Automatic annotation (TrEMBL):
This is LLM class flavin-dependent oxidoreductase. Residues 23-305 form the Luciferase-like domain. PANTHER family: LUCIFERASE-LIKE MONOOXYGENASE. InterPro entries: Bact_Lucif_Oxidored, CmoO-like, Luciferase-like_dom, Luciferase-like_sf. To bacterial alkanal monooxygenase alpha and beta chains. It comes from the Bacteria.
């Protein structure tokens, strides 16, 4: 298991909500989860931007990042990510520059170009779909706003300027991999929901990477769904919670966090089963020995530099225990 000791483990949080819970209790659970990760020495705790999704309560990403950073000690906290076409780059720079000023050396800014919701919600966000076509230019604008002032641009992010908040590019396609390589930025592949292009995207990123002022060589972080338990059998049982969520997503139903079930039989048809299993194709499910073996294989196959896990289990105690298992396999 020691082969994983040099690979940083991080967490991606969506603040999953049970139907009978409150937003306040759900966010309190996220804070407690972040504190557990901080205590166990995890590297990062990132929040994912989603809108208009009952069952997912991390819409106000920068607010939550500030709250969680204030309730933890050393873990890096950031956005995984900000869907940049939803927001003016200046506002994002001011927000994350403020966070970096409050919590120096602990803030990350992951940028994506997806809407983070449906087209109706995109219109409610006043999102201009054409802005996605200008994503590369807006990433450059973010770098300028968060970098040192050179006297040439009239609009400055105050605060934000010269905070040099680390920027990551997130994606599930070849486009984001190629852009990250061109700009010499660290790259995160969204394997937790879109495993299809994982091999091609990472290979493209490494092949075309151009060293930059912020990164001398490629750096790949891979998002994975994790379900860790004391036995393979119990892990498979717990994994039905995420399967039910993805099934609800495919059907357009609310994404409430649901209790695990003994069998998914009768809850889906064959086509839906295939779609859910494809969606979760990179899931790592099992006991400590099984988890360690699977992660080691992924490192060997893809040369991953860091993992960032989604850990959507029904009970907070199971989520916390999963973190303990992940920590143990790095020993």
């Amino acid at each position: 298991m020691s082969g994983l000791s040099a690979i940083p483990f991080s967490l991606l949080e969506l603040s999953p909500m049970k139907e009978d819970a409150t937003v306040s209790s759900t966010l309190a659970n996220s804070v407690a989860y972040a504190q557990k990760a901080d205590e166990l020495g995890f590297n990062r705790f990132w929040m994912a931007e989603h809108h208009n999704m009952p069952g997912i309560v991390c819409a106000a990403t920068s607010v939550l990042i500030g709250h969680i950073a204030g309730q933890t000690k050393t873990i890096r906290v950031g956005a995984g990510g900000v869907m940049l076409p939803n927001h003016p780059p200046l506002i994002v720079a001011e927000q994350y520059g403020t966070l970096e000023s409050l919590y120096p050396g602990r803030i990350d800014l992951g940028l994506g170009r997806a809407p983070g919701s449906d087209h109706i919600t995109s219109r409610a966000l006043r999102r201009d779909e054409r802005r996605a076509e200008n994503f590369a230019d807006e990433v450059t604008e973010m770098q300028t706003l968060l970098g040192p002032y050179d006297g040439s641009h009239p609009v400055r992010a105050i605060p934000g300027e010269n905070t040099n908040v680390p920027i990551w590019l997130l994606g599930s396609s070849l486009y984001s991999a190629q852009l990250a390589a061109k700009k010499g930025l660290p790259y995160v592949f969204a394997g937790h929901f879109a495993p299809r292009f994982v091999y091609d995207a990472i290979a493209l990123y490494r092949r075309e990477f151009q060293p930059s002022d912020v990164l001398a060589k490629p750096y790949v972080m891979l998002g994975l769904p994790i379900v860790a338990a004391d036995s393979d059998e119990h892990a498979q049982f717990l994994a039905t919670t995420s399967k039910q969520r993805i099934l609800a997503l495919l059907r357009g139903d609310p994404l409430w966090l649901k209790a695990p079930v003994k069998s998914m039989a009768g809850l889906w048809n064959e086509q839906e089963q295939a779609q859910v299993e494809n969606f979760l194709g990179l899931s790592v499910v099992g006991s400590p020995v099984t988890i360690a073996h699977k992660l080691n294989m992924i490192v060997k196959e893809l040369g991953v530099d860091e993992f960032i896990f989604t850990n959507d289990l029904y009970q907070s105690s199971d989520r916390h225990h999963a973190l303990e298992i992940l920590r143990s396999i790095k020993a």
